[in-house]
Amino acid sequence: MRVLFVEDEEKISKAVKRGLELKGYAVDTVADSDSGLSYAVDPDYDIIILDRMLPGSMDGIEVAKKAREEGQKAPILILTARGSIDDRVEGLNSGADDYLVKPFSFSELVARIQALLRRPPVPSGAVLIYDDLSLDPSKYEVKRGDTSIKLSSKEFSLLEYFMRHKEQVLTKDMIINHVWNEDAIVMPNTVEVYIGYLRAKIDRPFVDKPPLINTVRGFGYKLCH
Length: 225
Ligand code: CA
Fold this sequence. Notes:
The chain is an alpha/beta fold. Helix content is 38%, strand content 20%. It folds into two domains: 2-118, Response regulator (Rossmann fold, 3-Layer(aba) Sandwich), CATH 3.40.50.2300; 128-223, Arc Repressor Mutant, subunit A (Orthogonal Bundle). The protein has eight helices and eleven strands.
């Protein structure tokens, strides 16, 4: 899942980026509101986290509002040092989906992100299920039938993207944009390589079952029976 984090406090920004990347998220960080907005309109983000107090011509709430006006549909989480009821109402009226008061713990941030990503179109319930494959984003567990499967964080992130878009054709560009951040060096065959890793763990060991990760020649890949 691709995350945009707009935060001017470098320490927080770096720590959160590192922490989320260890959990398999692809994270872009920006430190002011104007570049924040230019990133926040990008439909490739799966979730946007905005600090409220930012240098530049806007605050985080205005960034959220403008991004919504430009058609951004991803969940938006506002971070703020102030926790008054008025702030909360203002934040939620701006088009933000949730609100987290600073200082926050990293585990609380992750829990909020996961809760926001569980909202529709993916129906509620933490565990994503397709056929006999299940993926639990909060426990980082993947199973096919009763067999546990160990995935690297990138493989996990790739599979999560497939499971949130089951039976849809995902092009290589879509996969790159949702699973890798903008700094990542993604070679033309990177997606193929990771699809190969995933097939080796999800499909190949289960010879008596239909492969779930399928190539749609000329277009991309699809999670389907
Ligand atoms: Ca700030």
